[in-house]
């Protein structure tokens, strides 16, 4: 029998968790891209 | 004494291989249905043949079984090694019959590249390949990617193998059973499938002006290849075909998600989320990404290939992200990539060699092993510098507080050195065929670390021995040596055991 714990992914809480996970990943990529942009700007300014 | 495998060992292995073949046969129904809907009758016939072969072998394997519960760690390893060898042989049939390959071996090469989530390809004229065949090659990457995580977290994590596989002496599981683990992996995949395909499809439809079905097709293909860090693409010019920064942005999210460990996904989904950034693995990959990105940007800026901040950032960032996550998408052609000499080449090669996180679809040495190696070296130096009786701390944080042990260090070093040897094997072979060192090393690392970026060495006219070595590298690199050694040990025991 499926335990309540195993069905958690299908609950609203589970879906919110999935959305949060995807959002954080998008934020990580945005942060990395911004860091790359700052670095590129710095490099081109000095070269 | 070496114990020779008996009939029961073969039957257990055949049973689990049979079950896997039946799963692949069922998965083959999707491209079959696709071919029927698209009225692509030649691929339809070849998919029927492939499904039939998988089904016959699957049923035969399952019927051989006496008791399925007897699977031990060694059997599991042999099953994994054989799966990543046999599935490409049969999975290559539709590709071979497509007429897009000059040699049968080339079709097998593409199937190995697909299932190992590498992305190197010998396919001629991908732009005119039937859509159902394109779907199948991308789906191979998805099956291989999802399969390797499941194998890593179930079979590899069984008993003693986990030390060698992860290079980390942890024996706890994040989720209590293989079933719940598999369910969570699929939940993570479905979330990325929904968000990824929707985002990419909308960009294709609204920004790029594709028809809606074409936009959805491209979104799905890029999801398969991006989330599983595979690197195949439906067009010969890879992601560069779309000429869209926002498309590259969403693709980048999928690449990063694919290179994240299962534990990290779990922490981001369920929390505690702050603890994620305390992990040695997370800190290591962020540091190595920053380091390799700086090298690449500096190299590109020095050669005047990109003179604007926007151009340098966009091209440099996407390529280094693709290399470090082991995906292999590119926005610049192979010929141009081959011209990235000096620091840019160094940055890309190092990023590919280091790879993504453990228990993800990314290849390479893996960031946890890199982090542990750096910590070991730092500790050795501190030991020398500090007074004789000083105690050097061995603790590190990885899903909780852990300690470096001699066994752990030995495992980490062993796997890392094996990767270096694998990188050198392909590079040496390339040099023997007169390929310049830089290109030979780049392509070899790309194959071994299951990346798929190419500087043009992987080509339908490449020498067959070099092609075979690249296939060996993709296979061994994907299975992180453990399953390969288990298979070799099993065969040796069969031949020489008593």
> What string gives the helices and strands of chain B in order?
HHHHHHHHHHHHHHHHEEHHHH
Mean pLDDT of chain B: 88
Could you say which structural class the secondary elements and strand pairing of chain A correspond to? mainly alpha
Structural class of chain B: mainly alpha
Provide the gyration radius of chain A in Å. 20 Å
Question: Strand portion of chain A, in percent?
Answer: under 5%
> How many strands, what sense, and barrel or not for the largest sheet of chain A?
none
Helix coverage percent of chain A: over 70%
Low-confidence stretches of chain A: none
Walk me through this protein's architecture:
The complex is a heterodimer of chains A (47) and B (498). With 47 residues, chain A is mainly α. The longest helix of chain A has 35 residues. Chain B is mostly helical. Chain B has 20 helices and 2 strands. In chain B, helix 3 crosses helix 5. The longest helix of chain B has 31 residues. At the A-B interface, helix 1 of A face helix 8, helix 10, helix 11, helix 12 and helix 13 of B.
């Amino acid at each position: 029998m499926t335990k309540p714990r195993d069905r958690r992914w299908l609950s609203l809480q589970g879906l919110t968790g999935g959305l949060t996970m995807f959002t954080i990943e998008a934020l990580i990529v945005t942060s990395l891209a911004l860091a790359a942009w700052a670095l590129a700007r710095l490099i081109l300014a000095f070269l | 004494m070496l114990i020779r495998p008996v009939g029961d060992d073969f039957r257990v292995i055949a049973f689990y291989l049979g079950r896997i073949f039946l799963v692949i046969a069922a998965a083959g129904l999707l491209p079959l249905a696709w071919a029927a809907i698209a009225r692509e009758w030649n691929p339809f016939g070849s998919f029927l043949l492939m499904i039939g072969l998988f089904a016959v072998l699957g049923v035969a394997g399952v019927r051989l079984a006496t008791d399925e519960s007897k699977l031990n760690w060694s059997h599991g390893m042999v099953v994994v090694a054989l799966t990543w060898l046999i599935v490409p042989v049969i999975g290559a049939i539709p590709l071979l019959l497509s007429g897009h390959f000059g040699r049968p071996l080339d079709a097998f090469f593409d199937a190995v590249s697909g299932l190992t989530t590498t992305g190197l390809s010998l396919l001629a004229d991908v732009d005119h390949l039937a859509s159902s065949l394109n779907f199948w090659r991308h789906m191979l990457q998805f099956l291989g990617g999802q399969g390797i995580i499941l194998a890593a977290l179930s079979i590899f994590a069984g008993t003693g193998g986990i030390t060698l596989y992860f290079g980390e002496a942890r024996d706890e599981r994040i989720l209590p059973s293989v079933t719940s683990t598999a369910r969570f992996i699929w939940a993570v995949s479905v979330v990325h499938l929904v968000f990824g395909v929707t985002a990419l499809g909308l960009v294709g439809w609204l920004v790029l002006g594709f028809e809606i079905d074409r936009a959805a097709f491209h979104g799905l293909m890029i999801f398969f290849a991006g989330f599983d860090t595979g690197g195949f693409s439906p067009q010969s010019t890879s992601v560069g075909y779309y000429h869209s920064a926002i498309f590259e942005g969403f693709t980048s999210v999928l690449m990063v998600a694919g290179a994240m460990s299962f534990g990290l996904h779990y922490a981001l989904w369920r929390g505690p989320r702050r603890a994620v950034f305390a992990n040695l693995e997370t800190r290591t990959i962020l540091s190595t990404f920053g380091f390799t990105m700086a090298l690449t940007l500096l190299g590109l800026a020095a050669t005047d290939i990109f003179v604007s901040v926007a151009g340098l950032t966009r091209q440099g960032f996407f390529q280094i992200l693709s290399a470090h996550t082991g995906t292999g998408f590119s926005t610049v052609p192979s010929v141009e990539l081959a011209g990235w000499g000096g620091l840019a080449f160094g940055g890309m090669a190092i990023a590919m060699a280091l790879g993504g996180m453990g228990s993800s679809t990314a290849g390479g040495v893996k960031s946890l092993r890199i982090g542990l190696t750096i910590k070991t070296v730092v500790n050795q130096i501190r030991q020398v510098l500090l007074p004789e009786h000083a105690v050097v701390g061995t603790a590190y944080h990885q899903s909780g507080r852990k300690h470096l042990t001699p066994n752990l260090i030995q495992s980490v070093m062993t796997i890392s050195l094996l990767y270096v040897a694998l990188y050198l094997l392909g590079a040496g072979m390339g040099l023997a065929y007169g390929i310049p060192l830089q290109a030979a090393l780049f392509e070899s690392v790309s194959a071994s670390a299951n990346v798929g970026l190419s500087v043009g060495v992987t080509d339908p006219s490449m020498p067959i021995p070099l092609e075979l070595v690249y296939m060996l590298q993709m296979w061994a690199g994907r299975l992180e040596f453990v399953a390969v050694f288990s298979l070799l040990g099993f065969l040796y025991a069969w031949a020489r055991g008593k």
